């Protein structure tokens, strides 16, 4: 199929921040490679110094300037581009294109908007207009009222009962909603909410706290063909921001009828709004009545779309980049490692992926750690396993700041303190739930206190009961196997049993790796993304003799994390250029370094000693590259004479590598 577009401008996301890591850059990096192959000139407007795509483009095609309307207009007029897209730039990029469209600049320069229908583009970032349009087509959204001042706000409150949800219309920054339980809270916060709106108006909705929060990630092509890539289920009900909730994918507690309902609504939304490419929709669902409301529509890449891609192995960015060019999905071309039918088959998962939020409160001890509707997490990690238990525990292990593979204990909390933490969740919600289970709180008690679905407490109870069994059966082969199947790491067993980790590893002869791919083994593929399991068949073998293993940064932290991921990505690129087979071990789903084409092979596992040694045993790398601030891992890996360890600079000021080689 001939593509008519010759020049495309990507409007970038600008600097990373809370709610945005490297996921947009990762998707843009993959699209750039597809468009290069198709002979398209790509231009970029962005000023994020840690954008990998900046390094991969021709210098004269990159405009390192603030992402705003004037600069976008300059690029359009200077380069005579055919098309423009915000799909890889998120909210800010979308606002820039909306203004360009409204001011007639796109029409004057004959520039197409790809991914979105120009007649509907102004609906996004405008909650009122978007809801009105969806309601016209019978798509369920919460009832709402628009107010311009405190008196109007109070009059609306007289019509509806607490709790209520209030959010600014046309927000100055990222859109956040606030939930109020009483009039005193409204009085204290009303001025701030009105000030946050450019128009001075707020939207009030019937609050649906306690409903399940469910997401879908779907694709749509120019012919109207649609496919759901994955469902995502928040552990927390509505009331805790989705970025701050543990998320399971695919969803675990919905019936087939409910899955089909949200799937159908997602597809109808894409049709109504004329979306091409990727779309993430967030729902509130009453599981008892099947009442369902659309909370959010995201027609671009974000953390949820990236999670769907990482968890299924489906090449969302590669496919989307071709759908944006008006290719029907039947005509999409994928690299040879994929089966020829992969792009047109709705993914099937034979494993579970769990996303765990990462918090900044180690560096901000005075900040309010209570969870609510406003995002407070600064990133996430994932765990992948055959069962919910294994995936959840791997995710928890990956989320901990300690590299020693031990989990925090809150046994010192009083009963009153524990109950308060259960009712008013904070960043330590998960270990608090495990502490409650260890104190013999029942599933019903915990469901009543937290409104979290009973299923998730059963999963946690299984982990807790397994831990008790392991404690009581030291060195027992059955306990050893149970521990690994449940997601316990060698470091945890070493700590629990007070046994040297090398002695534990000599017992472990059945660890295998499974491919993360979208057909559940239906078709032969070589996607080369793996997670550890404990089964007979091993799907990962040594990739080659000249191999470099790069240990990723993992969990995000305030400070150098995005810069560190940029460094890791560039390292992979340069190692590949000088002839190494490149392998990465990482668990941050938003890392650009985990983009499939960034390396030859990816392992998504906790970045801990046992897992690193297992990958080294499989791949037998010539060199192992490790971040310089991983002091425990550096010390432990340095004990192995056969490992050639290269220590990466711990920060951008110190640029020299340290080699520990024999």
Question: How would you summarize this macromolecular structure in one to three sentences?
Answer:
The chain has 662 residues and is an alpha/beta fold.
Describe the structure.
The protein is an alpha/beta fold and 662 residues long. Strands 17-18-21-20-19-22-23-24 form an 8-stranded mixed sheet, with helices on both faces. Strands 14-13-10-11-12-15-16 form a 7-stranded antiparallel sheet, with helices on both faces. Strands 3-2-1-4-5 form a 5-stranded parallel sheet, sandwiched between helices. The model has no long low-confidence stretch (mean pLDDT 89).
Overall, the morphology is globular
- Could you tell me the number of beta strands? 24
Put simply, the count of helices is 22
Low-confidence stretches: none
End-to-end gap: 54 Å
Global Rg: 25 Å
Major sheet summary line: 8 strands, mixed
Helices and strands in order:
Blueprint: E1 7-11, H1 23-37, E2 41-45, H2 52-56, E3 62-63, H3 69-79, E4 83-85, H4 90-102, H5 105-108, E5 112-113, H6 127-136, E6 144-147, H7 150-159, E7 164-168, E8 178-180, H8 183-196, E9 202-206, E10 212-220, E11 226-234, E12 247-249, H9 256-273, E13 277-285, E14 292-298, H10 303-312, H11 316-323, E15 352-358, E16 379-385, H12 388-399, H13 415-423, H14 429-438, H15 443-450, H16 454-472, H17 477-485, H18 490-497, H19 501-507, E17 512-515, E18 529-533, E19 547-551, H20 561-577, E20 581-586, E21 601-604, H21 609-619, E22 623-626, H22 631-637, E23 645-647, E24 658-660
Parallel strand pairs: 1-2, 1-4, 2-3, 4-5, 18-21, 19-20, 19-22, 20-21, 22-23
Antiparallel strand pairs: 6-9, 7-8, 7-9, 10-11, 10-13, 11-12, 12-15, 13-14, 15-16, 17-18, 23-24
Helix pairs in contact: 1-11, 12-16, 14-16, 15-16, 16-17
């Amino acid at each position: 199929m001939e593509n008519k577009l010759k020049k495309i401008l990507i409007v970038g996301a600008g600097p990373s921040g809370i709610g945005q890591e490297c996921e947009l850059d990762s998707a843009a990096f993959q699209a750039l490679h597809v468009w290069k192959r198709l002979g398209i000139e790509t231009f970029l407007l962005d000023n994020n110094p840690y954008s990998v795509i900046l390094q991969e483009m021709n210098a004269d095609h990159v405009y390192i300037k603030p992402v705003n309307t004037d600069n976008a207009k300059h690029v359009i007029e200077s380069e005579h581009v055919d098309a423009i897209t915000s799909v890889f730039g998120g909210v800010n990029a979308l606002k820039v294109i909306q203004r360009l469209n409204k001011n007639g600049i796109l029409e004057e320069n004959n520039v197409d908007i790809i991914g979105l229908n120009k007649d509907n583009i102004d609906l996004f970032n405008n909650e009122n207009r978007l809801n009105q349009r969806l309601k016209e087509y019978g798509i369920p959204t919460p009832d709402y009222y628009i107010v311009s001042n405190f008196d109007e706000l109070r009059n609306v409150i007289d019509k509806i009962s607490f709790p209520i949800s209030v959010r600014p219309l046309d927000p100055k920054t990222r859109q956040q909603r606030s939930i109020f339980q009483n009039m005193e809270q409204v009085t204290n916060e009303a001025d701030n909410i009105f000030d946050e709106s450019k128009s001075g108006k707020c939207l009030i909705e019937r609050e649906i706290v306690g409903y399940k929060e469910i997401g879908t990630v779907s694709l749509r092509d120019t012919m109207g063909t649609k496919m759901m890539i994955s469902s995502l289920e928040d552990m927390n009900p509505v009331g805790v921001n989705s970025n701050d909730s543990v998320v399971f994918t695919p969803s675990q507690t919905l019936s087939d009828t409910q899955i089909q309902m949200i799937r159908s609504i997602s597809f109808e939304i894409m049709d109504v709004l004329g979306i091409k490419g990727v779309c993430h929709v967030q729902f509130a669902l009453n599981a008892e009545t099947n009442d369902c409301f659309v909370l959010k529509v995201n027609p671009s890449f974000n953390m949820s779309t990236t999670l769907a891609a990482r968890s299924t192995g489906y090449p969302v960015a590669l496919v989307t980049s071709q759908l944006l060019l008006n290719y029907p999905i039947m005509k999409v071309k994928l690299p040879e490692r994929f089966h020829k039918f992969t792009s047109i088959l709705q993914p099937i998962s034979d494993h579970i992926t769990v996303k765990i939020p990462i918090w900044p409160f180690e560096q901000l001890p005075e900040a309010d750690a209570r969870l609510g509707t406003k995002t407070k997490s600064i990133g996430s990690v994932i765990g992948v396993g055959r069962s919910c238990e294994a995936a959840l525990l791997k995710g928890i292990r990956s989320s901990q700041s300690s590299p020693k593979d031990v989990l925090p204990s809150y046994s010192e909390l009083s009963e009153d303190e524990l109950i308060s933490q259960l009712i008013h969740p904070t960043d330590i919600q998960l270990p608090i739930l495990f502490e409650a289970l260890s104190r013999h709180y029942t599933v019903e008690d915990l469901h009543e206190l937290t409104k979290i679905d009973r299923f998730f407490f059963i999963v946690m109870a299984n982990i807790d009961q397994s831990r008790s069994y392991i404690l009581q059966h030291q060195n027992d082969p059955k306990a050893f196997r149970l521990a690994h199947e449940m997601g316990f790491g060698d470091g945890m067993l070493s700590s629990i049993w007070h046994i040297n980790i090398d002695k534990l590893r000599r017992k472990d002869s059945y660890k295998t790796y499974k491919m993360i791919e979208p057909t559940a083994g239906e078709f032969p593929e070589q996607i080369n993304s793996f997670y550890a399991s404990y089964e007979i068949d091993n799907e990962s073998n040594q990739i080659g003799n000249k191999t470099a293993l790069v240990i990723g940064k993992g969990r995000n932290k305030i400070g150098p994390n995005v810069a560190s991921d940029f460094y890791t990505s560039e390292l992979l690129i340069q190692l590949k250029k000088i002839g190494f087979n490149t392998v990465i071990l990482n668990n941050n789903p938003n890392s650009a370094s985990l983009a499939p084409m960034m390396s030859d092979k990816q392992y998504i596992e906790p970045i801990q000693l046992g897992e690193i040694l297992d990958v080294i045993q499989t791949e037998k790398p010539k060199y192992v590259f490790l971040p310089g601030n991983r002091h425990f891992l550096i010390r432990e890996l340095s004990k192995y004479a056969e490992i050639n360890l290269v220590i990466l600079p711990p920060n951008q000021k110190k640029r020299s590598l340290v080699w520990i080689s024999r």
